[in-house]
């Protein structure tokens, strides 16, 4: 009879710990910032949820603990921190490292294009490149040829498909003040967060939230502009999501086996929901090569932002066939 071999249960890697701090060792905001950055780097955290590096992430969390806006942080960088404030900061830094949740979930806030939005784990943390593109490509009369819509004040209707926290609909309301805005999501949870943000910005008159599958809840309505940051991660990407992203709703990422399930549906239906002069602005992550291969005749205009190259396309209603 074969001998039973005892195998040790696989050990979980121990959660990274911050080095102990004695009273009085950390004094100023700058001291806490340096300490947090060292801890974040040691723990190999991923930064993709409102900040893109450990210094900005630490500054954001310390600012939140002290009720300071991001633009006030520098002013107080050499200021001393009280014992109670120091504890609040250390609690947040520790939670970021041990839970690996995005900082935005720990403080229920994220800044996008300088505006604060409420977020929690019912919704993806907003970080769409479309926020920047609304500023850079929809200003109208710049005369430098980069504007995609000539007169933002003449935009009467906007649709934000896959709205999540409602952040893009809210940013759109600032660029198209005369537009009636519809925002759709299939997730009841996400819409609850969007409703809170829309109410916080007093925009309930301008923005209507709809629950449903893409265009389904909108009947035959047509829009001057459709913006969308849909789920576009393929199966391989879903399997390799960093822990920070696994804290977010999978529904917000999952684009099917090749990532394009929702994008195909948006491209095939958008024309029926655009006015004659309208256009579609859609974020697709790294899926550009697959989309170009699937639609070789579609004249998609690929747009860049400060932190992305060709991850968002623009197409007019006339060119959508
Ligand atoms: C990548 S997130 C974008 C959220 C938000 N627009 C942003 O930029 O932060 C995609 C959103 O699409 C929603 N969604 C997924 N499938 C959908 C569908 N078939 N119809 C409508 N919304 C959908 C998800 O619930 C999620 O909120």
From TrEMBL:
One of its GO terms (cellular component) is ribosome. Its EC number is 2.1.1.298. InterPro entries: DNA_methylase_N6_adenine_CS, HemK-like, Ribosome_uL3_MTase, SAM-dependent_MTases_sf, Small_mtfrase_dom. It holds the Pfam family MTS. It is an enzyme of class 2 (transferase). GO terms for molecular function: methyltransferase activity. The keyword Ribosomal protein applies. Keywords: Methyltransferase, Ribonucleoprotein, Ribosomal protein, S-adenosyl-L-methionine, Transferase. GO terms for biological process: methylation. Residues 156-235 form the Methyltransferase small domain. CDD domains: AdoMet_MTases (cd02440). It comes from the Bacteria. The keyword S-adenosyl-L-methionine applies. This is 50S ribosomal protein L3 N(5)-glutamine methyltransferase.
